[in-house]
Amino acid sequence: MKKTVLIILVMLVLAFFAGNGVAQQINKAPMGKGYNSQVIYPGAYKSVLLFFKNNTTDSWRRKPHMDRLRIISCQDALNHLNNEGKWQGTLNPDGSCGVSSTESPLWATGNRLNYDQLAGATGN
Question: What's the whole-model pTM score?
Answer without folding.
Answer: 0.68
